[in-house]
Amino acid sequence: MRIDDMYLAGIGVYVPEQVSTDQAVERGWYDPADQEASGMLAVTVADETPAPDMAINAARQAIEMSGLEVDDFAGLFHSNVHYQGPDGWSAHHYVLRKTLDTPVPAMELRQGCNGMLAGIQLGTCYLRAVPDRTALLLTSGDNFSTPAVDRWRSSKRFILGDGGAAVVVAKHGGFARIVAAASQSNPEMEELHRGGETLFPPGITLGQKMDLETRMEYWRKQWASGVTPPMGHMGDLVRGAVDTALNDAGMSLSDITRVAHVHFAAEALREMYMDPLGIDEGKHGTWEFARRMGHAGAVDAVAGLHHLWTSGQVGEGDHVLLLGATPGMEAGCAIVEILQSADQRTEALK
Q1: What percent of the chain has pLDDT over 70?
Q2: b/e string for 205-236 if b means 16 or more Cβ within 10 A?
Q3: pLDDT of residue 96
Q4: Is the full-model pTM beyond 0.70?
Q5: How far apart (Å, rounded) are the C-alpha atoms in residues 129 and 301?
Q6: Domain residue ranges of the chain, discontinuous segments joined by +
Q7: Helix (H, G, I), strand (E, B) or coil at 284
Q8: 109, 79 Cβ separation under 8 angstroms
């Protein structure tokens, strides 16, 4: 989907304190062999800070940076991966109350780790649908410090990190222009993250932890017994989504300055995301940032963009590819053109 008429008017992040992988190994939380293979140096851990509060912190930064008034906002889309608070409670309306505090719609996007990028696509359509709609607030936040998940061992493809992120999508200018966005799925691969578990009752209601490694082992055993697992490769979906966005934008990969990608461990990041695009994660990605934060759900790509922009690694005229994915399987992306450096934006708002 070519966009061109929408902008990122504000951006904000909340990044908690780091816990090093060395410390995790010393305390028996993380296997030394997994540490060496992952290339990860640390993850951010929020302890008892509620996930929605991290999203609120990021949202307040983004709103202030946007220079927009509360009445300019037509809604809020909140994304999350892990549990946000009490069952039967609305985290997205809590975020709305603590930020805009206006009677606009607040919606939850259940698109997993692709939630913020899906929000850009859906938000563009939402704003275009009514001429008087000016801006939309997109937020995300996750805290994996719960008994329901072991951040260090739930998957060998990543370590779970905590954090919050927000962007303001607006019609009338900002620090970056949204050029295009796209996504591609392979629904036959949904079984990979189900791994033989029953749908009812949900495992979490029985006190069962999220364990993606056990689900992967299920399919390894199935294959060994002669049952072919769901076939497909995330790299094909990544390449498909990115090619669609580039074609819609009239661009090629050589036009992309940097890539703000999901915060996977080294081998999985290369295999599933970087190699299919022919991109060096160290030179053109956000690996040095990612390996110190961990996989914070839908926060990753926005946090990566914020890091590139505020650190001066991208500036006016540069194009950044935001890259995400979610179980299902689905990959999503967005291309943004930087219109102002962080310093220029600060000066413009004075």
Answers
A1: 100
A2: eeeeebbbeebbebbeeeeeeeeebeeeebbe
A3: 98
A4: yes
A5: 26
A6: 2-174, 188-224
A7: coil
A8: yes
